[in-house]
Amino acid sequence: MGKLENKVAVITGGNSGIGLSSAKRFAAEGAHVYITGRRKEVLDKASAEIGANVTAIQGDVTASEDLDHLFDVVRTQHGRIDILFANAGIGQLEPLGHITDAAFDLTFAVNVKGTVFTVQKALPLLKDGASIILTGSTTGIKGTPAFSIYSASKAAIRNLARSWALDLQGTGIRVNVLSPGATDTPGLQGVAEAAGRTTMYDALLAQTPAGRIAEPADVASVALFLASDDSAVMTGSEVFADGGMAQV
Ligand code: NDP
């Protein structure tokens, strides 16, 4: 019997990296997993990799109508959500002097506004015992060169979870933050290509006491912990899946 037997999970940004690895893990533990993302072909590929117990729904977390469609489908097919993993996120390197209006707006639209309305629109489907996981980052508690806007967006996530744990008091719904450190995903690879891949990976490694860059599956294990009843006592908390990076 899996840890998530008969649970219904929704993972935004479930077609790549940490989201995809978590979707595989949740499905293997018995959950039916809804994965979302904007890129249809990447969603289809992810869906095929996961195999059974998966529904892929194309959508953008910044588009209200896409979120409505997602939760309409889940409501019709399952009537509830046990695990909501608000994982979709983006970031790009921009030193202070080069921050653009467009990059600021997009980063906050996806990482903060997308998270707020994903959770708000899912709320009617979340019942006693449900687990909400928000995706933070070690950058949310540290200064990070050329990554201030992304880092600020992830700092906001910590406070959302703390405040929502209070808003949700008495409902039996819990909300926690999963904060990865450097994790070898297509997302990080994209940022690293722009910065000079070897230089950036070396710098990240130097800030990681565990001595290796995490794999998506490392973070998915922690997501499973937060999704399952193993973490039933936790709400308003932040868990770092970061090889110790937050300490450096
Ligand atoms: P990936 O780029 O591999 O995955 C990001 C996912 O988010 C993709 O599925 C992407 O799908 C989706 N996404 C992006 N924008 C949107 C949008 N507007 N609407 C819907 N989906 C969207 O990155 P990671 O797996 O690395 O990142 C996952 C999360 O982990 C992010 O929140 C990231 O900030 C966080 N994180 C990652 C770290 C790392 O080192 N990798 C470290 C700390 C935190 P599509 O493009 O098809 O829309």
Automatic annotation (TrEMBL):
SMART domains: PKS_KR
Cited InterPro entries: KR_dom, NAD(P)-bd_dom_sf, Sc_DH/Rdtase_CS, SDR_fam
Stretch forming the signal peptide: none
Keyword Oxidoreductase appears in the UniProt entry: yes
SUPFAM superfamilies in the record: NAD(P)-binding Rossmann-fold domains (SSF51735)
Keywords assigned by UniProt, alphabetized: Oxidoreductase
PROSITE patterns registered for this protein in UniProt: ADH_SHORT (PS00061)
Domain called Ketoreductase: residue spans: 7-181
Family assignment from sequence similarity: Belongs to the short-chain dehydrogenases/reductases (SDR) family.
Name of the protein in its database record: SDR family oxidoreductase
Originating species: Paracoccus albicereus
